[in-house]
Design goal:
Blueprint: H1 2-19, H2 32-56, H3 59-71, E1 79-82, E2 86-92, E3 95-101, E4 104-107, E5 113-114, H4 137-148, E6 154-155, E7 159-162, E8 166-169, E9 175-186, H5 189-194, H6 199-215, H7 245-260, E10 265-277, H8 279-319, H9 326-341
Antiparallel strand pairs: 1-4, 2-3, 2-5, 2-6, 7-9, 8-9, 9-10
């Protein structure tokens, strides 16, 4: 039984090893100009040899020259031109052949084909913007033709993914609208094109999933009446989407990176670009924020007024300006608090008689 289990484990390891694809960068292939020059030189020689063979009735020379003229153009399929920050993943008869990286004029096996299932995928991101839809019918046909003949090159540039805003419930169940911008690039071309069906759509989906997973762990704003542990240390803290945006963005970045590592993508940065309550509760939440701000302002006014009244009474007693009993002190305190805490300007009243 144990022997069978070991055999099963070894078979599983072999399958995992066989399915694992490592990026193989092809070096020493920048011979495109040499091959192209040699092709035309031999083409001229073949034409001249064909003419000479016809004139001298040398069938062997005629056959060789004709074969070269008829089939040598197949070699031109192996010529590849790459601009800076571009790559090309190649397959040969269904197997991974290698990856060309960097600017240059390359020559590879003419039967090797470029493979990039995400070549025509258009996302809302820099460097991958769809063409304008406006224009004449001829312009639209030209755009469609260009899209259909788009090459299979993989951009190694740093790009920005701007997914559409999502409506997500925060920790307290309040619906919020949030959008993020993800700075990313392709780090491993073999994983990007072979481990997933479409690495651009995969990144977009994993970004939405990671965003939803992180946002539901935070409240929109700090609520002192409902202490929440957002750091995972077992103690309530002041973490919130509005007040801890840098921490939330870093957690979103790490979450996305863990999810897209399998696809050979590298997440450089993630930033929250939009954050607000959902429209259906925005008005109610605005009233709550206004009420909270009003209470805080009133509390500050009362604290200041009490301090000022205390200072006034102490100053009057220190300077012996007037002798006040407890009843008169209470009346003075009441008047001063009304004056200091009121919203309207004070209208003084001059008493020309006695105090009673």
């Amino acid at each position: 039984m144990k022997k069978n289990q070991n055999q099963i484990d070894q078979l599983g390891q072999q399958l995992d090893h066989s399915d694992k694809i490592e990026e193989k960068v092809l070096v020493g292939k920048q011979k495109g100009m040499l091959v192209l020059t040699a092709y035309f030189v031999f083409l001229v020689i073949a034409v001249l040899a064909f003419i000479w063979g016809v004139n001298h009735h040398v069938s062997f020379v005629i056959a060789l020259a004709a074969i070269y003229i008829a089939f040598a153009w197949i070699l031109l399929f192996g010529l590849k031109v790459l601009k800076p920050q571009e790559a090309l993943a190649l397959t040969l008869f269904g197997h991974y052949y290698g990856t060309l990286k960097g600017a240059g004029f390359y020559y590879v096996n003419p039967f090797a084909q470029a493979f990039n299932p995400a070549a025509q995928t258009k996302l809302g991101q820099s460097g991958d913007v769809s063409e304008q839809a406006s224009g004449t019918s001829q312009d639209k046909e030209a755009i469609s033709f260009n899209l259909n003949r788009q090459d299979k090159k993989i951009s190694m540039k740093v790009m920005t993914l701007n997914n559409s805003k999502q409506k997500i419930n925060d920790y307290l169940g309040n619906p919020v609208e949030i959008g993020v911008a993800v700075i990313w690039k392709v780090n491993d071309t073999a994983k990007a094109v072979f481990n997933v069906d479409n690495f651009k759509e995969y990144l977009s989906l994993q970004t939405d999933t990671a965003l939803r997973n992180i946002i539901r762990q935070y409240p929109y704003d700090v609520n002192p009446r409902v202490p929440i542990d957002t750091s995972g240390d077992g103690e309530p803290d002041d973490g919130s989407l509005r007040g801890s945006s840098e921490i939330v963005a870093q957690r979103i970045k790490n979450e996305i990176q863990e999810r897209v590592e399998f696809a050979g993508l590298e997440i450089l940065e993630a930033r929250i670009t939009h954050l607000s309550y959902a429209p259906e509760i925005a008005a109610a939440m605005l009233q709550r924020q206004q009420a909270s701000a009003l209470i805080d302002a009133r509390a500050m006014i009362v604290d200041g007024a009490v301090g000022m009244v205390d200072m006034a009474l102490a100053k009057l007693e220190e300077e012996s300006v007037v002798e006040l009993d407890e009843e008169r002190k209470a009346a003075m305190v009441s008047n001063l608090l009304v004056v200091l805490c009121g919203n309207n300007d004070v209208s003084p009243i001059v008493n020309s008689g006695s105090l009673y």
